[in-house]
Amino acid sequence: MPPANPxxxxxxxxxxxxxxxDRIMRGELTPGNRLIELxxxxxxxxxxxxxxxxxxxxxxxxxIETLPNKxxxxxxxxxxxxxxxxxxxxxxxxxxxxxxxxxxxxxxxxLKDVVKAMKKAAxxxxxxxxxxxxxxxxxxxxxxxxxxxxxxxxxxxxxxxRTMTNVSRSRxxxxxxxxxxLDIIEAISTGKPxxxxxxxxxxxxxxxxITCE
Length: 213
Prior knowledge:
Layout: H1 9-25, E1 34-35, H2 37-43, H3 48-61, E2 64-67, E3 71-74, H4 79-103, H5 108-123, H6 127-144, H7 148-155, H8 159-170, H9 174-179, H10 182-190, H11 193-206
Antiparallel strand pairs: 1-3, 2-3
Helix pairs in contact: 1-3, 2-3, 4-6, 4-10, 4-11, 5-6, 5-10, 6-8, 10-11
């Protein structure tokens, strides 16, 4: 007999995506490990369709890759790649922060709520939720800048997945990391665009991974 309230396929694909992403971030699935649709579908007692959707989303995030005749596998994300991404983030997000400060966009209350959510995730050691809230904090600023090209460029960086990767490697205290966002909120509140730009840039670069490649 089927379950009384089966999950809609969209929700099921998100569940599978998050479960696989968590395993990748925790090192249970390592670079080179294959992700076999039939095996995953059997584990979650579902068809291959939601698994396929979940794998597509993970590939879009840049954490897995699909190779001809080999299927999906976890890909290696080097510190060099992360470092380059953080360099670009620093430029985009500092400019966005400058723009919202120039425009006087009222973001203080909304951003503080996100910091609270980050701290809750930190207390619960929920790295996926933390990365999601972290990404949302920066997305709010970029979206509020009113520059659609800037937002489009920022979205290509897959900030949430890259934040998770960086956090899992750096082992930084998540509560301290959440609190570091308060400096950005304060800088926006000063109404000084140049200062806001610098604080936002310094924030991103302070979390840039050390590259050895």
